[in-house]
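TOKENISED FOLD:
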Amino acid sequence: MSPQHFEDRASHLPAKDRPLYFIINPAASNGKARTAWDELQQYLHQQDIPYWFAISEDEDNLTALAKKAAETPGAVVAGVGGDGTMSLIATAIYGTDAVLGIIPAGTGNDFARTFSIPANPVQACRSLLDGNIVPLDLGRLNGKLFYNVVGAGLDAEVVADANRLFKKVSGSLGYMLALVKQLVFYRPHRFHITVDGKHTELDAWLVSVANAQYYGSGMRVAPEADPQDGYADVVIVGKLHRLQFMRLFPLVYQGKHVKHPAVQVLRGKQIAVKCAKPLHVHADGELIGKTPLKVEMCHHAISIKVPAAENEKISPAV
């Protein structure tokens, strides 16, 4: 994947004429990304749009490819895959003038929801070509960058079970089986939470630190989160009886759970979470270790391409 002749002209081109790189993860959503790429490639050829592409399912290679593409001034580096692929690209282009592009082709596609990026690959590509560039916050979790949601508690234990017990079950079914298991057996834990110096101690089902609104294939865990404001929304689901929690749980898909008195939403730039018993921690849908966790928000860390209509709601990149 070679930058070729773009170095001297990219910074002076209109956004839609920036050098365009696609990085495809064929393993995303059991081959959905490969199908999306075949459709997208046909469209690109029909429109005579120049581009570079690479296909890999290896995380280290995906990261290396994104960093290589970001060496081209002004490059748009678009992932074709799920949230895990986008997270790898977003963190890889940090510190460059490259722009993140999203062609959602995974199981959840949660970050695409936040910016109303179409699920159809051709429509998503049109938004990529004709959309606008806006700034995007990232978070730093225990020194590692993330772009969507991190947390500990029930949700992280679901990810752990899905990876460990149900990894041979395809797509969202494995996640749902893990969720059912944890809803039956999980018990709230004692959390010590510090947000910008203010300390809270309580028993909770989970603590989510959200840069954006959605995770877990459509759960609107932080309905007011804004990935441009420099803050994380810290969503704490406090101690409830199991049946109360099960009644509350479906409300997360509409973001209505935050109205329940057992749910707190704090906002801050620096967050620390500890537990008496070390718990799994997830970041952008992947396990990354155990508590304690420390998050620091990085304001306007990278840029992202969004649909033109969506740009009316959010601040343009400077």
The radius of gyration is 20 Å. The chain is about 25% helix and 30% strand. The first helix runs from residue 32 to 46.
